[in-house]
Amino acid sequence: MIKCEPTGLKEITKLKGHTGSVRSLEWDSAQQRLFSGSYDQSIIVWDIGGQQGTAYELQGHRNRVSALCYAPMKRVLISSGEDAVIVFWDMAAQRKETPEWVESDLCQLCRRPFFWNLRAMVETHTIGIRQHHCRACGRAVCDTCSQTTIVIPKLGFEFPVRVCGPCHGLLKGQDLTSLATFHDAKHSIGFMNLDEQQKRLLTVGHDRVIKLWDVSQLL
């Protein structure tokens, strides 16, 4: 982030979280939140003005995210990308911060060593196993301890993701209603523009086609 001063530009901070190129940005001036869409197929919501440092992930695309639009009156974020899908995210909903992944040499549930932990493998006379991470709690777990998948809308996971056994048991009893709606754009989108008052969404595709959408039923 950069601050404009009379003497020039001053760097305030760096936001790191994406693993691919950031291709689109949107700003929520009321809630002081920055939305970033990336080629890593994810969207990150950076809470700049409220709980500073808090970041929420939105995982609803299966290909690169290339365009974002925000409707402040309805508090809806619109995303699109190369998967030819337009997603409407309810940003008024209560969401939770994505947990950080824990690094460990052993499965944090069954205590079996991961394949790089040679010392533990020799001491226990076992073959090392592959490491996974529970998307709900961030624990480092093995495949046996994380064989289930589930959607976690409050964490931004609209598709089923890997979770550990204990978290799956807890999540099954919670409200897992989707906090987004998905719509087939029928072309890979490179650019979008929204007129919230007129309820019109403009998309420009990589197929050289421009489409104008009536989104009055969605906003």
From TrEMBL:
It comes from the Eukaryota. GO terms for cellular component: early endosome. Residues 101-172 form the FYVE-type domain. Keywords: Endosome, Metal-binding, Repeat, WD repeat, Zinc, Zinc-finger. Pfam families: FYVE (PF01363), WD40 (PF00400). Coiled coil: none annotated. It is found in: Early endosome. WD repeats lie at residues 15-48, 58-99, 182-219. Its main location: other. GO terms for molecular function: zinc ion binding. This is WD repeat and FYVE domain-containing protein 2. It comes from Lygus hesperus (Western plant bug).
